[in-house]
Amino acid sequence: MRQPVILLGKGEVSLAAADGDVLVEPEGSGLEGIEALLARSPRAAVVTSGGEEGFFRASLCLERDVKAVVLRRGAFAEAHEKELATRARSFGRELFVHDDRRGYERVRAGNERVQVGAPEVSAWEAAVRAAGRSKRAATIGLDVDVAWEEAAEAAEPLPMDAPVPGLSENLEEVAFTNGDKPVLYLVVPARSLDDVRARHPGAAMALARAEAFPLAVEGATGRRIEGASGEATVHVFFSTDPDLAARAASLWEQGSSRNAAAIGELLGYPPCCTAAFVALADRRNNAALVYVTAARTRALGASFHPLLDVAVRRVVPFTPCSFGCARAASAAARVVASLPRAQAEPLTRALARPVLYLDEARAVAFEGARIDGAAITFESARFLPAPAPLDSEGEFFARKLFGALFEGGGTLVVTDDAFEVRGASFTRRLGRTSPRLGVLLPFGGSSG
Ligand SMILES: [Zn+2]
């Protein structure tokens, strides 16, 4: 049987030239509907919607080896077309635009990459650099005027979220011990290498570089910066097969970015997630990855699987292709299932909460929450321990600011311009400014 052509998105398209073997994405079928079409090994995909809906559909097809991806001419912003063409080139594929009048035309890759789904990246980087490690980092993207400054000073700080007692610092090591990963990759301070090695007595170890390098983690973005400051750090690979550990270390040494697909396979990451990661314009800003994954999840009509609530805890160490990725969720489920019940149960509860995520330093989880479209009604809020925290003064100010905003519960609505919390007798409004940080991640919470 001839491989079909698939038609993705809502836009109108004339199929005068098609010869009957065209499969159309059923409206409202979400990611499952798209996956069902991709499972038919289509020879080509025609993407009819523009915007993020179309962008992430086209990227998904390129990542899944669809030989020809065709965009409806005029449906996409030029920068998005060029970004998709760059992605096509990196997968050895070609991208076309089409309309009935002018037919097919190949799209050329651009020089500049675009991180579709992330906040304004250059404004963001500038704000992070300007704030440095100061209290100002707590207000990036927020319009904190004198009134908010005073409200924050007067407020109780938002309570820190309680840790799950006894839970491993690094759940990736749990997955490795379970036999779910051929190779375990860790970035650890050189001084704790002996301790880490002692935790994996049956495994061979390989270092990606013989010597340790100073490494600092940038607050807010979570970007790892190698250089003059920070703690001496090593990149280390463990495997019960010494050849695999050595191979992973050598691939990393030759270029962790260039070899991301091969390394992902050795680390046991789902191929769909590795391909989506390889496709990205920029893989260094960890906070941007959360935004991109959330945008892609919404664009593809996927769900937010609670076990992939990366803002509360990274149960799997890779970036899932979407928060609804079934393979990523089942990898996370295997980790949770292997934990003692006294850890698994509180962890599962903690993960199943909606989150307002700003960056790797500032995220808030909602308790007793109900999700109603774009609004979240909640009883109370908790500040989440940060993977890349601010300094203590900055973090304390962030907690007081969010304490003032979320005190007593209410309904949170996120608009382009503000975070609004409405209660029975009040409306609080905290303005948003460039680079407009803040995305609602509707994990868990009952739907209204
Ligand atoms: Zn995936």
Q: Spell out which ligands are present.
A: zinc ion
Overall outline: globular
The count of β-strands is: 22
What summary fits the major beta sheet? 7 strands, mixed
* Unreliable stretches: none
What is the rounded distance between the termini?
A: 45 Å
Radius of gyration: 23 Å
Number of helices: 14
Report the portion of residues in β strands.
15-25%
Number of domains: 3
Which class of secondary structure composition applies to the elements?
A: alpha+beta
| Spatial strand order of the main sheet | 7-20-19-18-16-15-22
* Mean pLDDT over the residues: 93
Please tell me about this protein's structure.
With 448 residues, the chain is α+β, with helices and mostly antiparallel strands. It has three domains: 5-106, Rossmann fold (3-Layer(aba) Sandwich); 121-162 and 353-447, no CATH class; 182-267, no CATH class. The protein has helices at 30-38, 51-63, 78-90, 121-131, 146-154, 171-177, 193-199, 242-255, 260-266, 271-279, 286-299, 326-337, 341-351, 392-406; strands at 5-8, 22-24, 44-47, 68-72, 94-99, 103-106, 142-143, 184-189, 204-207, 213-217, 224-226, 231-239, 355-357, 363-367, 370-372, 375-378, 380-383, 410-414, 418-422, 427-432, 439-441, 446-447. A seven-stranded mixed sheet has the order 7-20-19-18-16-15-22, with no helix packed on it. Strands 2-1-3-4-5-6 form a six-stranded mixed sheet. Strands 8, 9, 10, 11 and 12 form a five-stranded antiparallel sheet that branches. A hairpin with a 6-residue loop joins strand 10 and strand 11 (224-226). The two termini are 45 Å apart. The mean pLDDT is 93. Zinc ion is lined by residues 270, 272-273, 320-321, 325, 327-328.
